[in-house]
Design a protein that fits this description.
The protein has helices at about 30-40, 85-100, 110-130, 150-160, 165-175, 180-205, 225-230, 240-245, 270-285, and strands at about 70-75, 105, 210, 245-255, 260-265. With about 290 residues, the chain is α/β, with parallel strands linked by helices. The protein has a 5-stranded mixed β-sheet with strand order 2-1-3-5-4. The protein is globular, with a radius of gyration of 21 Å.
Length: about 290
């Protein structure tokens, strides 16, 4: 479960991308997820950005008694880059929801291919800014093998950060450079607003938006070598992060290798209660 941005305090979290960072909850039962969110959400005097929106008793309201309006993004079930077995399982769930009396409609979301680059431009830029403090002076790791200030900076950051973290810092620093700031960062902020507005427009007409959680099932560690191939695995989950809305992934079956497949549901701001209740209904009725 990824709650609405600001639903849970970020106090104590190492900042990666401040306008995206959200504390998520991973459980094997919807009830446990609801209970943890109930405990964790709400105001915190140590985080001025956390929402003061009332926290419902999520765990006590898991009965979904109405018929939902569910939109599924047509492009995600037609995209050849998404695994055929995953698309098959998602179609099965959607068919089940139709038989169960819910209003399930296909919608077009032409912005899908813009969501991933927008996410990575903005998050790497924010990561570059946030992680610049970890230079070996006041924060984080300091390399013992240094002889002057410059070598301390270089060795501390190269030894203290992993390869992927360094890659994102470098990308973000490039994006924020004076020459490319308007071409990338400013433009991505404008696109983010368009993505958010379009997403909210859909969620005004429908209770939930449905799509697969990932384009493929789990791969072995080290099997995917190229960074862009790794980033592509985020294709379907970053829309909720860019828009700041809540989203949840529910297991809905396995592929022919026995690897789990997830259905992702998104809803409007602070509608975690509906999201959890509907997820609970699917988990108990479909699986």
């Amino acid at each position: 479960m990824k709650p609405t941005y600001s639903r849970i305090s970020r106090y104590g979290l190492t900042a990666y991308a401040s306008s995206f960072d959200t504390i998520g909850i991973l459980t094997t039962e919807v009830y446990d997820n609801a209970l943890l969110l109930e405990i964790m959400a709400g105001k915190d005097e140590y985080d001025s950005t956390v929402s003061r929106h009332p926290v419902p008793e999520y765990s006590e309201n898991l009965q979904f008694k109405k018929k939902a309006r569910v939109a599924y993004i047509k492009e995600t079930l037609e995209d050849p880059r998404i695994d055929r077995e995953i698309k098959g399982k998602i179609k099965n769930v959607l068919d089940f929801l139709k038989r169960d009396g819910h209003n399930v409609k296909a919608i077009e979301y032409p912005l899908l291919d813009f969501v991933l680059p927008t996410y990575y431009i903005l998050t790497t830029a924010e990561a570059s800014s946030n992680l610049s403090r970890y230079d070996g002076v006041k924060y984080g790791y300091r390399s013992p093998d240094t002889f002057d200030l410059e070598s301390m900076y270089k060795k501390s950051r190269s030894e203290g950060f992993g390869e992927e973290v360094q890659r994102r810092i470098l990308l973000g620093t490039f994006i924020l450079s004076a020459r490319y700031y308007d071409a990338y960062y400013t433009k991505a902020q404008k696109v983010r607003r368009i993505i958010r507005d379009k997403t909210l427009e859909i969620l005004e007409k429908y209770d939930f938006s449905a799509l697969p959680t990932t384009p493929s099932t789990a791969f072995k560690i080290g099997e995917v070598k190229h960074p862009l191939d790794m980033y592509f695995e985020d294709l379907l989950t970053v829309q909720a992060s860019v828009a700041g809305i809540p989203a949840i992934s529910i297991p809905v079956g396995f592929d022919n290798k026995g690897l789990p497949i997830g259905l992702q549901l998104m809803s409007g701001y602070f509608k975690e209660n509906d999201l959890l209740a509907f997820s609970n209904h699917i988990s108990k009725s479909y699986n």
